Amino acid sequence: MISTSRIVIALSALPLAFANYPLMNGTTTSTVYPTGTSSPSPATQTVSVGKDGLVFSPDTVHAKTGDEIVFEFYPKNHAVVQADFNNPCNPSTDEKRIFSDFIPSAVGRANKTFTIKIEDDKKAIWLYCPQNNPKPHCVQGMVMVINPPQYAHNTLEAFRMKAALVTGNATVPLGGASGGKVASPGTPSTPSDAPIPSGSSPTESTGAGALLAANGVLGTMALLAGLAL
């Protein structure tokens, strides 16, 4: 005969088995979603330099802080220089002024691009081409603006009209490229090595919990059978 105390001990093991390894009820995958809202990824816009004549296409760009502007160059030999609104065709007094240096192309798009990142979308960036051969491109109207101001008198057309009044040649900055990055089109960017925040990636369950729970039940049943002998 099986004593009552032995049966009680054996049955008490059943809740422990189910508590430690709960049955999955047919579900094998669970997902933990990150909390909070994520910020939108920076955008990239492309500007063609000299593709449609002595113009930037487009000549007006609206971008947010963190966005990138990629300049693609076409024949024959152009550059991008940052100017001040009241002094077109001359390099800006800003210490971080933009200058792509000259990027020539005999046919089609050049094998290099120039990329800048917007650091302050509240600040207008006035640009011109400093090429003077055969005529000053800036004076001919080859200018553009990124994030034009809201003031009515500081418009691209006003900047272009000021450039048309410049006598002589446009000024080419000293030194090489600055305020951006010269690269070959299609160059892959370096992937981020930042670790994934805790709780931000999905987690999977392979059903091991259900299997262990079943094993626990079978083990308890075997124990009862052994006591019955």
UniProtKB/TrEMBL annotation:
<feature type="region of interest" description="Disordered">
    <location>
        <begin position="177"/>
        <end position="207"/>
    </location>
</feature>
<dbReference type="InterPro" id="IPR008972">
    <property type="entry name" value="Cupredoxin"/>
</dbReference>
<protein>
    <recommendedName>
        <fullName>Cupredoxin</fullName>
    </recommendedName>
</protein>
<dbReference type="InterPro" id="IPR052953">
    <property type="entry name" value="Ser-rich/MCO-related"/>
</dbReference>
<keyword id="KW-0732">Signal</keyword>
<feature type="compositionally biased region" description="Polar residues">
    <location>
        <begin position="186"/>
        <end position="206"/>
    </location>
</feature>
<feature type="signal peptide">
    <location>
        <begin position="1"/>
        <end position="19"/>
    </location>
</feature>
